[in-house]
Structures are given as C-alpha cells and as structure tokens.
Design a protein that fits this description.
five-stranded mixed sheet, alpha/beta, Nucleotidyltransferase, domain 5, 2 domains
Length: 317
Amino acid sequence: MTRFAIGVDLGGTNLRVAAVNENGGLFDHLSLETLVERGREDVVNRLTNGILELVNRWKDRYQLAGIGVGVPGIIRMREGILVASPNLPGWENFNIRGHIARKLNSPFFLENDANAAALGEKWIGAGKNVNHLCFLTMGTGIGGGLIFDGKIWHGVSGMAAELGHVTLYPGGRLCACGNKGCLEAYAAASAVVKAAQEILQAGTASEGLQKLANSGLKMTSARVYELAKEGDASAQEIFNQVGRALGMAIANFINIFDISTFILGGGAVEAWDAFEKSMFEEVALRSYVWRNDPREILKSSLGSQAGIFGAAYLAFQ
C-alpha cells in the first residue's frame, strides 16, 4: 500500500496541514488561522483536529507513515519543549510535543520550522542534488537550518542554526532577540521597514519613499520593494543594505562550514533582484574560500511550502 505522511507548518499567523505522498506529491491540505490570542491549548486542539481530519480522509486508501510538525522558535529536542518563540507569545517553556502527542495515536515528529524547510529543500527542492546545505528563511525574522550528510544538524541540545542572530554590526540596530547588530535586524522584512523609518526620521528620504510615508498606507517591505523596482534611490539603498548584510553573513558561513549550497527562502526573497548584486559583491569581498571555490547561492524552489514538505519528510525518514 502506498504510504503518505502529514506535514504541519505552524506559524504565528497561519496554520497549514497537508497530506503528502512518498514522491513529494501534495494531494490534500487545510489552511487555518493560528489565532494565537485564543491561547496555546486552542491552537493545539485545532492543529490536531486538522491532522486527524486528513488522516481519516485517506487512511483507508493509503498507509500512514507518520506526522511531522514544524514550529517556530527554539526547541529542546530531547524533551520536546518549546523554550521561546517570538511568533507564539505565551508559549515559553511549553511542552508542545507532549500536548500534541496526547491527542494523536500515530508516530509524531517535532522540528523547528526553519529546519523543516531546509529538509524540504533537500528532499525535493533546490537542494535535492546535494548532501550539505545551509538554508536561510527570510520573513519577519530570519531563521536558519543546516543539513549535513543529508540530515538536519541540531547541535548539542537542538538549538543549532540560529543564523539570523549572528552579530554583524556590534552596537548596531537593536534586534528582537535583545542583541544589537544581528543579521535579522538588517536583512529581514521587518528590517526593511525599520531602515525606511530611519531614513524618514533623518529627513534624507527620496521623493518616492516620502510619498509612501504620507499616503496613509502601511509601510511594508513589499511596498518598499515596489519603490526599488521603480528606481527610488532610498528604497534601492535599503535593499543594497539587505544584500550587504546577507553577503557578510553568508561569507562567514562559507568560511565556517565549507558547504556547497546556500538556499534563501521566505517571503522576503521575492525581492531577490533588489539585493542580489550587493549580496554577491559582499560574499566575494569577505570570503577567501568563495574567491577560490565559488559556492551556489540559490532561491528556494518550494517557496512557502518548504516547511510542509520537510515536516512530512520527517515521517518518511
């Protein structure tokens, strides 16, 4: 009998549950709002109800291999404890594995969402032909995942690859983690908005950015990107800054890990053409390894579904 797995991507805004076959075919899915304001028990109930709904739809036709759930935040993998998650306020030190497992009667695997996305890219995405890769997911924040010899690298306690919180500029912009000068504070979607606000406050904004600020529309990274495509000088410089921060970080990762492939995913990668040039220039400037042996830096091929596929693949592994 053909096997299938359930992959879950739990985000701060959206909760997605999908049924995936062994060839990476997604054949059923549910999209729900996370509604974190209702509390973690409510979220877990709707998550597990969604899983059971898909399992019951397909269990008579296919054999269930298992269930994988990707969760944002720092997880102590041995205990299944979600230590902290900026996207899930009030979930600190929450035994998420235990709460989910009590409601399911099937094999269940928990993983950090960026790690799951990295695994998805390794399975059927941009990294399917390599055994070692570094994945950066660029959204409101920046997450990271490392694949070594085809497997997720968790580190000693499961907290490895917090790559968005490497320090690039000591004493620089304040990051949500409490440190100053993190990659996330300069290259995430939230950093694009912060940079635009800084330019406006300094009184040096170009006409286009100033018009956006005066329009009454919410300042978003997508709107700043549209200005950059139109040739707005301030918007283009903001994305040049994003590229320089990414290039600096990736150069360090190349020098440290000496792996072949770096994949960028998440919504902010839609602005690839606005930061690509400065990113590659910075990598070449700062990595001796790169200059002698260039590595691949690629866009995700799975987009927002990378985490769902990676979570499902946990069960097939």
